[in-house]
Amino acid sequence: MQSPCVALLSFLYLIALVSNSVLAQSKHEENHSATLKDRGCTKLLQRKEWRVLSDGEKVAYTGAVKCLMSLPAQNPALPEAKTRFDEFQALHLHLADNVHRVGQFLPWHRQYLLSYERALRNECGYQAATPYWDWSLDAYNISASPIWDPVTGFGGSGVPGTYRLPKGVNYTENLIFPESFVGCVMDGPFANYTVRLGPGLLRTNHCLTRAVDQSYTGYITYEAVAKTLRLPTFEQFRLELEGGQAAHKMHDGGHYMVGGEMSNFYSSPIDPLFFLHHANLDRIWWNWQQMLPGRLAEVSGYSTYEPPHVNITLDFELYVGSVGDSVPIREVMDIHKAPNCYTYV
C-alpha cells in the first residue's frame, strides 16, 4: 500500500501533467490563431469528404446548389445564362480552351471553385464549405458509391433510352462522346433540372445526363494518387494529374467515369458533381504543395495550348468573369491565407 507521502506526490505529478497538457493545447491554439491572423484569416472553412457529412449536411449542400439554380443570372454579357448556376457553366464553356492543358489549369480551377463556394454561402445561405469526393475510395466499385444516393446524394446514372443527342451535331467539334450520353438522371435532387447549355458548345434545353462507367476508374485509384504525389516538380505533377487528349489521367478519369455532361470538355460543370471532383483534385494539389515549403510558389507551364506560347508566372491573372474575383496566381497558392481561408480535412 502506498504511503500518504507517495500518494500525494503521485497526485501532484498527475496534476502537473494535466496542467502542462492544457497549457500546451492552449499555446497551440494561441499560435494557430496568431498564424491565421498573420495570414489574414479569422478561421479556416473545412472542406470535408462527402461521406463524412451528416445526412442533414448533405441535403443542405444539394439544397444550396438548387438555390443557385433558381437565382437569376447577374451578367447580361452571357445571354445564354438564365440563372446564377448557368453563369458558372457559361464561363467554363467560353474559357475551356484557355484553362485546360495549360500551366494555370490547377490555379484557375482553384479560384473558380472558390468563387462557386462563395456564391453558395453568400447568395444561398449555405453555412459550410464545398465538400470533396475522394473517388479513390470508390474506384474498385464505383456504382456502390454513396455519392449516387437518391436522397442524400446526387442521384444515379442516366436511364438508357431517355435522352438523345440533337440531330446533326458535330461530335468532333463539340468533343462529344455519344456513348457517354445514354440517358437522363431520373432520381435524386437534380432529376427534374432543365439544363440550358451543352452538350459541348451547344445551347439546348435538356435533362442532366450521366453514364457511370467502371472502365475509367483505373485513373482514380489510391495507387494513381500516390504515384502523382511522388512527382518532384510542379510540371511533372500537373501533367500527370490533368492528362489530355493524348493520354488520359486522373482528371480525365474522374470526368469520364461519371459520363454524360461530366465527360464533356466544355459543358462538364453542368453536373454539380463537377465541383466535388475538382475539389478533390485541388485537395491533392494542396497535399503535394504541403510536402515542401517552396511548392507554395512553384508554378510552370505555357499559358496557352496553341502557340505562340508564354510561360505562366505568379503574376498571371486568373480571369473568372462575373462569377467571382479575378486574381493573380500568387493569391491562390496558399489556401490557408486570405482571401482563400479554407483547408481540407
From TrEMBL:
Residues 1-24 form the signal peptide. Residues 100-117, 271-282 form the Tyrosinase copper-binding domain. The lineage of its organism: Eukaryota, Fungi, Dikarya, Basidiomycota, Agaricomycotina. This is Tyrosinase copper-binding domain-containing protein. Pfam families: Tyrosinase (PF00264). It comes from Agrocybe chaxingu. Coiled coil: none annotated. InterPro entries: Di-copper_centre_dom_sf, Tyrosinase/Hemocyanin, Tyrosinase_Cu-bd. One of its GO terms (molecular function) is metal ion binding. Keywords: Copper, Metal-binding, Signal.
